[in-house]
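S., here's the first fold you wanted:
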Amino acid sequence: MTKISQIDSDQIEQLLKRIEQLEAKMEDGSGSAESGKEAQHFCAMPKVPLRTFDASVSPERARLIQFIQKKWVNGTKLRYYFFDSGPNSGPNEQKEIVRQGFEVWKKVGIGIKFEEVRNISEAEIRIGFLQGDGAFSFLGRDALDIPKQGERTMNFGWDLRQDPRGVDVPVHEIGHALGFPHEHQNPFAGMVWDEEAVYKYFGAPPNNWDRDTTFYNVLQKLEVGEVEGSKWDPNSIMHYAFAAGLIEKPVEYHKGLKPAGGLSKHDVSQVQLFYPPLDDSNYTELKPFHSEILSLAPAEQKNFAINPSATRSYTIATFGKADTVMVLFEDQSGDLKYVAGDDDSGTDLNSQINVRLYQGRRYVLRIRLYSNLAPGEASVMLW
């Protein structure tokens, strides 16, 4: 018989690790493939090409653009549509759970508004229930790049009524629609995986993911610029729960990681950072040929009212070396409808909108700053 003294230290470490994993699986069957309990369904985000920047764009400038680029300008009303026929439609009981998900975000008290619409052409978010196609949502403004000919921007591919996570499932997907990525891919999390165990777990039912899907949604770390600071929130609504035996480090999660459920304090602080409450009735008026200074920090936003004195074509443009996104809405009895927008981030251009405005109507202009490229202030002018 081989004596313990003859086993080298690496073998001992591997043996102890294996024993620990087996003990963890016996103690906590929360979704492990070998536990005998059914594994959870997980969200698989659609793969979108990573944005690249010209060599002239500094790392700091690129980081700020990555952090902000998927977010909507604050004050946007996101209109969502449920498919009501065909394979993308679902029962009203499931739709009601998704409606409750929107209410969870709304109750935080944010500047983004939500409205269910009956006309698909009005919707930024198009929600389907195609069974067997998993759950997904495009990330924030990426939804605008998806054609409107019946294509989903969000899906729930299993019966939400049978999911013990309840409303947390749509709250997670709506978080993506607001522009928030998966928290477990935070590069500051210090996550070290048993990668083959991860591939095996997510490749098994009910997810049946190929290796590329697993890598994209679990193992691939986000760019540092896509997250704030060095914080990692294991209780975020945007974090998966993980079964025992998948995480090697941090060591306290060897036996699995299960977020507390619901929105965490960090979730709330992040959504309020980008989307604080707004009062549309008290904005500075942007008048023709009068420059307004944009004294903003990165991610901050300034809002203006425009009340045309004549019906004609106008130009609205920013000035100065700054990356901005600018969006114009028409105020229709308190309901802001998108008119036009421009995003100059990562270029040597300035944001500019050329549009016909009508006397007697009220418009709202929103400008969010990514970064200032040179000392001094950026500005905006209407003419």
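And the second, which I think is the more interesting of the pair:
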Amino acid sequence: MIEATVPLGRVAGIRIAAHWSALVTIALFAWILGASLSGTGSAVMVWSTAILGAVALVVCLLAHELAHSIVARRNGVQVQEIVLWLLGGVSELTDEPGDARADLKIAVAGPATSVLLGGVAGIAAALSALVSPDGPVTAALLWLATVNIILALFNMLPGAPLDGGRVLRAALWWRSGDRLRAAATAARSGQVLGTVLMLLGVAEVILFGQFGGLWLVLLGWFLRTAARTELVLSGLRHRLGGTTIGDVMTPSPMAFPAGWTIAEALRSEAPRTQHRVFPVVDAANHPVGVVAWSDLAAVPEPARATTRLADVTRKLVPAAIANADEPLADLATRVVLRPNLDAVAVVNIAGHLIGLVTATDLALACDRSALGLPITPAPRSLR
């Protein structure tokens, strides 16, 4: 998950955010477009058009990800947010498609949107050419059309995590019925593709002296790293098998009411337990966040009698709220839990807290599965 620093609002109910590196992307595109527009108009006109063109491209990248997310939601896949960053955008889905057909629809939606946007920009460039054939606006629109088409074609290369890798996974999944093997094959293909891009980038720098090859190296490294991560996660899913969250959760965990003060929490039974992270619930027993001993210790002692837990509670992100019958593998691949700080709240159909999964629970389950041991140890017989 990419840490987002700037929330940008919501589109179609989907949260949009931007990482600081998105500014680097806009600056780079503006510089590339500005250089190509040199001589088509005054300096002010050229660079104004270049900046607007770069922003328009980022909007197109956002539209690409929105298409993925909207189709995902229509196929029952929850979407946490879309984050714009250095290499474009990423849709953060909280679970996996239920079948190969849904997987294919979600994968194809992004490139199809890019092709559509490329066509719209191309038509706009043709209309602009009727007025100013050699002007910067016409050239910028043509550039925008070209980049969108290239983006669509590149994304359809058959290797995860690119959209083409998702298409490959869906096709193999549909043919074999084995989602895990299909995902592993797509991930290995992504590793090969990333390596090829890195080698092409190095060759471009060494043989032709084109430092633009460094961008291919960076992109190839990202693809190879992301594909390796997906391969590891595929193995994890295979090992965890049919284990559910309910198999490893702590049932009926001790929870703090949000209205309690820190002093009240310290006078409760909690300090006499071995727990280090506690869920915080509202009056209806709905989890609203988690709090750790370190969160309480950060509040000066004189203020603990008046500081409510609601004021120091860390809110639960949607991915950290789960159902007991969900596959544990889905949880392990969508959240990163910090030891002694984070936890996942397990709720029933009414949204009431029924269990808790900590980083220790998750790590123990993964370690035992890696060793071929049962996820939960069998109870010892009494003699």
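Why I say that: The mean pLDDT is 90. The chain has three domains: 6-156, 175-240, 245-370.

Talk tomorrow,
H.
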